Amino acid sequence: MITGLSTILSHRTWFVPDVVIWGLPGLGEVEFLMLEQVGSDNTVLFGSFTVGDGSQVISFADLVDFRGNTLPETINTPRVLVRSHSPDAVFIVGTESDSSFKIARDPESSEPVTVDLLILEMDK
Fold first, then answer.
1. Residue pair 46/90 in contact by the 8 Å Cβ criterion
2. What gap in Å lies between CA 74 and CA 101, rounded to an integer?
3. Residue-level pLDDT at 63
4. What predicted TM-score, i.e. pTM, was given to this entire model?
């Protein structure tokens, strides 16, 4: 029988202190429709663009844990938990991939936010 503690210890875990988060969340994709008239010619234009896509992408291989060890390039089914050093919110954008994750700070914060990361490998 596997106890709760042995289940937790069977997965790899990293604590990464003092990571500076400067990225901001994107506001999403905006679609537009435009009519243009030049002389007697009429043209309809349709398109889309992303507004404010400034989230920060962090690769696991670029991180160093509190012991000074570089994290592996890939982590199976990672989950990243964030603890902010300030009252400003910081959050994961989307879902973590095996090699990186997107993170952003509250757009109301006036400066980058320092956080600690706890990275868990959920699958072996």
1. no
2. 11
3. 95
4. 0.69
Residue numbers of the chain with a pLDDT score lower than 50: none
Evaluated on CA atoms 17, 22, 25, 26, the torsion sign reads negative
- DSSP 8-state secondary structure symbol assigned to residue 4: H
Dist. CA 20–CA 109, nearest whole Å: 13
- Residues 121 and 77 sit within 8 Å (Cβ to Cβ): yes
Strands 90-93 and 78-84: unpaired
CA 61, chain centre distance (Å): 15
- Give 36's contacts (C-beta < 8 A, 6+ positions apart): 42, 43, 44, 45
What's the half-sphere exposure (Cβ side, CA atoms, 13 Å) at 60?
22
Tokens of 75: 């982590």
